[in-house]
Each structure stands twice: as C-alpha cells, then as structure tokens.
Design goal:
Layout (H helix, E strand, L loop, with lengths): L1 H28 L16 H9 L6 H5 L7 H15 L5 H15 L7 H18 L11 H7 L17 H8 L5 H11 L18 H12 L2
C-alpha cells in the first residue's frame, strides 16, 4: 500500500511538473521584447553611416560596445573582414576599410586625425564628388538587383511576403495612388526609420546616390 501511494504521488508530481512547464513555455512564447533603442556613437566619418546600415542588419549597437576596448584600426578592420568572409556580410573592400576606421575611432584607440583614417576619408570624398558630378540620369543604368544584394535588402524584405520588414508588394499597395509616393519612399530609403511598419528599425541608406535610391523606390513601387 505505501508503495502504491508513493507511485501515485510520484506520477501526480510529474504531471504537475509537466503542466507547469507547458504553462511556462506558453507564457514565454507570448513575451514581447522592447524595441532596440541602442545607437552607434555619432561621427562625421563616412564609416558611421555605413555602419548604421550594414552592421545594423544583424547587430544592435550594444554588440559593438561589448567588444574588447582599445582595438586599433587594423584590428577593427580585420573584424569587419571576418564578418564578410566568415558570415557573409554584404561588404566590399572599401566598406570594410571605412567601417573599420570609424569603429577604431569611435570605440578603439585610433583618432580621426590619424593618417590612415584621413587618407580613407579623402579617397571616399573624392569618389563621392565624382559620382555626384555625373548628370542626373546621364550615367549607366542602375542595376537594382545588384543594389538589393549588396545592401542585404532581401535579408529583411521579400517581394510578396513579410520577413523582418514588410513585403515590397505591401509597401507598393500602401503608396498606390499617392502622387508623392516616389519622393516619400526615396526619403524613407535614404533616412531609414522605425514605426511605419512595426518597431524593427530600418537602417539608413544615405551612402547610396540619388539615382540608386530613385531606382530602388521605383522597383518597390512596381511590385
């Protein structure tokens, strides 16, 4: 008789534990985390805008703050190279160098007046000037698919279904019939933001040229 009671109590305890665990899991599934409010340290360096856009795809700013302090420019640049080669971050060689310089100044041991930093900034400014000097619409046709890939747009958006952000077709439907749609969407692409489609922030695309941003907006609005 005592054995039977013990066994019955044991089964009851297991059942109670299972119910409690199920309730905990059900409760946990309904948890809503607050939006990420962390921000990168501001800078006038070109790598700042790139870091907002490219690093913000996968990381919060807190992730960068938790890296070892005092890393120099070469070390931060190597870290960015690892993000590209090991994790497939959509970065080209120039972007790796520019973001590495920004991170080294904002979070590491470099200064904005270091020769390697100023040299990178001067090269970037010269490239921007050459790009902006082209007549509007007078250059080569913009390769939208290349832009979508290079800027990891398809990591957050799909044509017909929501992923992290809204489907392109949903964005097109929202602006359909609005004569200012192209300008509004171009501005959203350039500046990024949060709140229009939920609390997940879209990083700014300020590093893109006007023709590129207009081409992206036109592509989305056609969906």
């Amino acid at each position: 008789m005592p054995t039977f009671v013990t066994l019955t109590l044991g089964r009851s305890a297991l059942l109670a534990s299972a119910i409690s665990l199920a309730a905990t899991v059900a409760t946990a599934a309904g948890i809503t985390l607050p939006p990420d409010s962390s921000t990168l340290r501001p800078s006038t360096l070109p790598g700042y805008a790139l870091a907002q856009q490219k690093c913000g795809i996968c990381h919060s700013a807190d992730y960068i703050s938790h890296q070892p302090p005092g890393l120099d420019q070469a070390q931060w640049t190597a870290e960015m190279g690892k993000m590209q080669h090991s994790y497939g971050a959509p970065l080209d060689r120039d972007e790796i160098a520019l973001i590495g310089a920004y991170l080294a100044v904002a979070y590491g041991s470099a200064t904005a007046s270091d020769t390697r930093v100023t040299s990178l900034t001067a090269s970037w400014e010269a490239a921007q000037l050459a790009r902006d000097s082209k007549p509007a619409g007078g250059g080569d046709a913009v390769d939208v698919q290349a832009l979508l890939t290079a800027n990891a747009c398809l990591g957050c958006h799909a044509l017909q279904q929501a992923v992290v952000g809204p489907a392109f077709s949903a964005v097109a439907a929202k602006y359909r019939g609005d004569a200012t749609a192209s300008a509004l969407l171009a501005n959203s692409i350039r500046q990024g933001g949060v709140g229009k489609w939920g609390q997940v922030a879209m990083p700014p695309m300020a590093h893109l040229g006007d023709d590129q941003i207009r081409a992206l907006a036109a592509f989305v609005l056609k969906q």
